[in-house]
Hints:
The structure is a homodimer. By secondary structure, chain A is an alpha/beta fold. Chain A folds into 2 domains: 13-236, P-loop containing nucleotide triphosphate hydrolases (Rossmann fold, 3-Layer(aba) Sandwich); 255-493, Rossmann fold. The first copy, chain A, has 20 helices and 10 strands. In chain A, strands 2-3-1-4-5 form a 5-stranded parallel sheet, sandwiched between helices. At the A-B interface, helix 1, helix 2, strand 2, helix 11 and helix 12 of A face helix 1, helix 2, strand 2, helix 11 and helix 12 of B.
Amino acid sequence: MFEGAELGRKVSKEDFKAEIPELRTRLLAAQRRARAAGLPVVVVVAGVDGAGKGEVVNRLNAWLDTRGVQVHAFWDATDEECQRPCWWRFWRRLPKRGGIAVLFGAWYGEAMRERLDGKTDDAALDAELARIGNFERMLTEDGALFIKFWFHLPAEEQSRRLKTLAKDPKSRWRMAPDTPVEIGEYPEFLRVAERVIRETDSGQSPWYFIESTDRRYRDLTVGRTLLAAIEERLERDGAEIDHSYSHAPHLPEAESAQVTVLDHVDLARALEKQEYKHRLEHYQDRLRELTWRAYREKRSCVLVFEGWDAGGKGGTIRRLMSAIDARLYRVLPVAAPTDEERAHHYLWRFWRQIPRDGRVTVFDRSWYGRVLVERVEGFASDAEWRRAYQEINEFEQQLVDHGTVLAKFWLHISPEEQLARFKAREETAYKRHKITAEDWRNREKWDTYKAAVNEMVVRTSTEFSEWTLVPANDKRYARVDVIRTVCERLAAALGEDED
Amino acid sequence: MFEGAELGRKVSKEDFKAEIPELRTRLLAAQRRARAAGLPVVVVVAGVDGAGKGEVVNRLNAWLDTRGVQVHAFWDATDEECQRPCWWRFWRRLPKRGGIAVLFGAWYGEAMRERLDGKTDDAALDAELARIGNFERMLTEDGALFIKFWFHLPAEEQSRRLKTLAKDPKSRWRMAPDTPVEIGEYPEFLRVAERVIRETDSGQSPWYFIESTDRRYRDLTVGRTLLAAIEERLERDGAEIDHSYSHAPHLPEAESAQVTVLDHVDLARALEKQEYKHRLEHYQDRLRELTWRAYREKRSCVLVFEGWDAGGKGGTIRRLMSAIDARLYRVLPVAAPTDEERAHHYLWRFWRQIPRDGRVTVFDRSWYGRVLVERVEGFASDAEWRRAYQEINEFEQQLVDHGTVLAKFWLHISPEEQLARFKAREETAYKRHKITAEDWRNREKWDTYKAAVNEMVVRTSTEFSEWTLVPANDKRYARVDVIRTVCERLAAALGEDED
């Protein structure tokens, strides 16, 4: 695989100088156009030690308008990073639309290091590479441009440079907190590298091999490759074809064929007032205890609330929260995204709110908006909401893999109950603000929403993250049901029995 | 001071119930109006242990629309927080306009704890309290509403409750990582508390004493106080008077009286090409070494660039950066604020970009925009830019107190040199984008800007943070001058001699 980068390619000083002016002019123009077009560019810088990756990036910074370029190394994970799913630290470094992020090692550095140190085997590495592939695909589908450079040196040149670097007390190689690959480790390093490149070299996110023996060849090739990738992409834009199609089966028209998971929810469930008070108090006490225990054991908790308008989310969340110490939780209402949020993949705004270990975050509406309101109202394109199921499942898997306790609730009521509640709200002074014209409009699309909810529940109820469909015609039943479920999940995660 | 909270005030169950419906309705309405008006509300919760601060906040969460309320405790500082000036952790928790933040202890917690532990003496505490006063004043002047609650218990009640709490294995008092005040420590605690309250109880940001023996009295008083504060503030808004006036002396009209600090900059300074190359290389090498050393010794560095349009900021920054490893620095161009940034005090957007220990952040334009372009173009009100000098000085002092190396450069050129550069830019293809109609307009206001620059330099050149006025008619001289200065500052901070 690396033979193509051991050909002895070089560029003379004169040729280098001759190419520079046009390259710089075009690079600056391409960067400006990319900014205007809102194209996010991710440049991954990887390769063998001693190839001069830092030099190349300094060169790019000199050629480009530095003000639009952010460079990130992933040396030490801070404790804020360690206390969240491991992809959080990458999400927070992604470029916004129109920006360029240069990532040293990116998500490849740690995957390779762990394999080399024997902390993982090839199978585990492959699994991680599949996750990486999914991650990059998700971002390219969202419009990002990936340019991944692999800097290579032939074995002798490598070994010569590493010896020189090791001697020079001023070289980065001695200063930076990276763990350099030992010279004897190189064959294994190349074997792992080949596997990594092979598994993640996709048409949408290709690797570029850069022979790095000659610095001028190296830098010029990088500059030209970056330029070509951006220019090609800008030209193609607008001409993209949506390859997605509906994966929902087409149903017969008979009403009996339209049954959804929601129809199986037993809306007759209810609780007497006395029984309600008793149970509510019981589970609130239990929840207080469990959330403190989760705090001590550093387990975070993410609670997602979706449901029909007037389904009782607010009241349920209030009862849930009143059992938890106010210092341990945050409630996040999901409203219109800010402009910083709009400049990223739609999941970015949720990633940035993921709780640290030991804390609880309640999402009052959530990332499921993508496949509910955004789908139904046409705010997301077909391609966007159709791929969202898989993106969401991967996101939630990362939460669960980190140890986060995740629970998702759909508060279900009948259309008749909704109508009654809408009317009641209009009659109570301090509830009137809760009902808007939009609520009435949404109500007219009940069946469309119902189909979307059905598909959402079917596609995103996974072994690691099931939906809880809560019968909520009776508010008392719903509240107790939710708090009890949260207790059960927490208790199970903490290894306690719940009765 | 605390006698007023030991009167035995109480509220019966019936009276409590009777007051609730109206209170809730009005609180919700006030919250909605505050959101619409963009009023940021900061609720500080402090007081003696055992007074039930957590209970009160849970009650507020039940009465208010939780979705607009963020609660924060400041238990453990994360390493991302420790590696920045200590106020960073508070800045990141401030509410945006229209939001309510409930802060347990807030900036008072640590100040009190350190005094009680004997880490500080009364003088150091007073100094910290003065900083707190400035901070709160800055935010109230920016429109924030502060409501600071002090929860008090008489000595016997206190001691009784603490004993009970210490026995109960489920109480927060045992679970949370706060260090509770020991019972024997109480007289000293109250002495320190009195000092803290006295020094920070201003007309704009008053403390409210809340007698906490009776829970119903306590909660009702808190709810009513919060309501009254928000309602009063919303009514008053729009009727505020600007008490600021120009503190710049009024000058005689003779031209000889108009001399500014910029006129003392020797614009004839220049470097020959050979000498330039030699010195540039020398200082770049030195800078490479020093920034790695600063990384190892965990010293951060903030470099601020201001100057005339076409003054050569971009080229200077590029030469500076090419000497520093790309993994150590970030360049931040200061353009229009995002909507999240606009929803906070103008310094918030700079606070969020403060580098971690060991890293370098370059601001290409900066917080000084407040007293330059925003002043001259009228984007900031007179009151806003006039108070900005002091706000900036305090901000920079916090950076320097943390150990950050700070350097500020004004790149100075003559109007004639600017004209020549504007024309040259219009003639070079890859520079044409750098010149806009706005640049020509700004040029017409040269004298107004000059006066603003003069006042900025005079008011913000402090013993801990001096301005460097760089003669930049000769680009070569300017570049070397800047890099040399950065080397000197870094070397001095690291205890090295620079020649």
